[in-house]
Write a structure and sequence with these properties.
Blueprint (H helix, E strand, L loop, with lengths): L1 E5 L12 E5 L12 E6 L11 H7 E2 L2 E10 L4 E7 L3 E4 L2 E4 H9 L4 E11 L3 E10 L7 H12 L7 E4 L13 H5 L9 E2 L4 E2 L2 E3 L4
Parallel strand pairs: 10-11, 11-14
Antiparallel strand pairs: 1-6, 2-3, 3-5, 4-5, 5-6, 7-8, 9-10, 12-13
Helix pairs in contact: 2-3
């Protein structure tokens, strides 16, 4: 966790004219202590992407720029960054979009749904964590799923953990709640491979 600066919601940071809020998925402010996405507003912020209104609408909402970072204000007004809200995972300084990883996982005949969430990792910066809902009567094999992702996208895209869940938690917005999914991640310790200098993924059959 990194303490960035002291601020009060919608007040300028250190008199620089930068306003900061922490909001939920619907853009409403969350209370101190609650985690949400950090959004900022400044007179110098960009107006949008050239001739791309759809992409602009995803990033700029009512003049507030989505940073794609997760954070929270504490009771003293300090802003803490706690993770990333973007649908990408940066592993070993390489950006991986979660969409292709999810697509690879769901292409397996035993998988009905697949969701991938990034979380901080002390060795790789971030790591991908996969959550799969099996097809009726199926039991997805984690090793097979990892091999599938590795074959299609490379080793860095392979999820550090694969968790089988009966269903996916839904946020108030009606979308899958990926933050809640992270709470289902197993607290297993990955083994260290001395030959490669990398931690080995863990596969679990845990259910929600």
């Amino acid at each position: 966790m990194v303490v960035v600066t002291r601020a009060t919601t919608t007040r300028a940071l250190n008199s620089t004219g930068v306003e900061v809020r922490v909001v939920d998925e619907d853009g409403a402010d969350v209370p101190p202590g609650a985690t949400g996405e950090v959004v900022v507003r400044t007179a110098n912020a960009f107006l949008g992407y050239w001739r791309d209104p759809d992409r602009t609408a995803e990033v700029v909402r009512d003049g507030w720029v989505r940073t794609r970072d997760l954070g929270r204000f504490d009771g003293d007004g300090f802003l803490h960054l706690t993770g990333r809200a973007r649908d990408v995972v940066i592993v070993n300084a390489v950006l991986h979009y979660v969409g292709p990883i999810e697509k690879a996982l769901v292409s397996h005949p035993d998988v009905d749904q697949a969701y991938v969430v990034g979380a901080p990792d002390e060795r790789t910066g971030e790591a991908a964590h996969a959550f799969v809902v099996p097809r009726a009567g199926a039991s997805p094999d984690g090793a097979a799923l990892r091999a599938l992702v590795a074959a299609e996208l490379g080793a860095d895209a392979v999820p550090a953990t694969v968790t089988t869940v009966a269903e996916v938690p839904i946020a108030p917005s009606g979308k899958p709640d990926k933050r809640a999914l992270l709470a289902l991640r197993p607290e297993a310790v990955r083994g260290f491979d001395g030959a490669t200098g990398r931690y080995l993924p863990v596969v679990t059959g845990a259910t929600a």
